[in-house]
Amino acid sequence: MERISVIGSGTMGRGIAYQAALSGFHVHLQDISEQALNQAKLFIEELANKSFEKGFINKEQYHGALDEIYYTTKINEAVKDTDLVIEAVLEKIDIKIEVFRQVNEYAPEHAILATNTSTMSPTEIGASTKQPEKFIAMHFFNPVHRMKLIEIIRGMDTANETVDAIKFVAEKMGKETVEVNEFPGFVTSRMNCVIGNEAMNMLMEGVASPEDIDKAIKLGLNHPMGPLEMADLVGLDTRLRNMEYLYQNLGEKYRPSPLLVKYVKSGRLGRKSGKGFYDYEREGIRL
């Protein structure tokens, strides 16, 4: 297990690629957008520079991040010699299935295929591949280089050898793992969505300001980040897709907050758009 291909160069994809390169893997990062790849490369270079200057990574890791990530728009080039493919595209099952259809055309037979989904069924996605026994879900957390956990979710046909290989990769990346039985939302996403949705409803009802809701959860419940800050970091459009999926599969308690729907319709998507529950263009001043 030496070569990892990451499909999708957004927030999660570039984070996974960076952490894999720091950990000694040879990495291909693929995206259909040349612009997205350029942005990912710039982000990774800036993060590596800052981390090296502050002593968070050593010289070998620094050069790994700069020299062991290869950027390409061609999926065949990205996966032709790989040992592990990690898909990190939008949380839309039809897009994920199409990605793995293409991956199956070019990846070697021995390669393990993993989806970085936070809610969706690895059984359903894996059924579209040639070898569902080599398919699994790896749920990373943002920011990948700081967060210690990877949720591992096996599909109905996932082989024990596949699980063992993924645990090896996670350990080499410096991560802890939990093995979760397949169920919509797994462990962390179900909890995050419930807490975040209730925070949004409280904000809509005028219970407290975003700052005070987040402060109450951080200081009163000892969470490292408030639920509204967390939603802004994840992306409100991503959170809405997750909520809609859970609502469809698990019922009423996951009905998305009307405030979340309103914010997404208005283009307030969180950090990535500059505005969400907080205004990041004005240094965190509430909207």
TrEMBL record:
Species of origin: Oceanobacillus piezotolerans
PANTHER family: 3-HYDROXYACYL-COA DEHYDROGENASE FAMILY PROTEIN, 3-HYDROXYBUTYRYL-COA DEHYDROGENASE
GO-annotated molecular function: NAD+ binding; oxidoreductase activity, acting on the CH-OH group of donors, NAD or NADP as acceptor
Domain 3-hydroxyacyl-CoA dehydrogenase C-terminal stretches: 185-280
Residues annotated to bind NAD(+): 8-13, 31, 91, 96, 118, 142, 272
Metabolic or biological pathway: Lipid metabolism; butanoate metabolism
Protein name as annotated: 3-hydroxyacyl-CoA dehydrogenase
Keywords: NAD, Oxidoreductase
Family: Belongs to the 3-hydroxyacyl-CoA dehydrogenase family.
Gene Ontology process terms (BP): fatty acid metabolic process
Domain annotation 3-hydroxyacyl-CoA dehydrogenase NAD binding: ranges: 4-182
UniProt xrefs under InterPro entries: 3-OHacyl-CoA_DH, 3-OHacyl-CoA_DH_NAD-bd, 3HC_DH_C, 6-PGluconate_DH-like_C_sf, 6PGD_dom2, NAD(P)-bd_dom_sf
Keyword Iron-sulfur set for record: no
A UniProt-annotated Pfam family: 3HCDH_N
SUPFAM superfamilies: 6-phosphogluconate dehydrogenase C-terminal domain-like, NAD(P)-binding Rossmann-fold domains
Residues annotated as site: Important for catalytic activity: 139
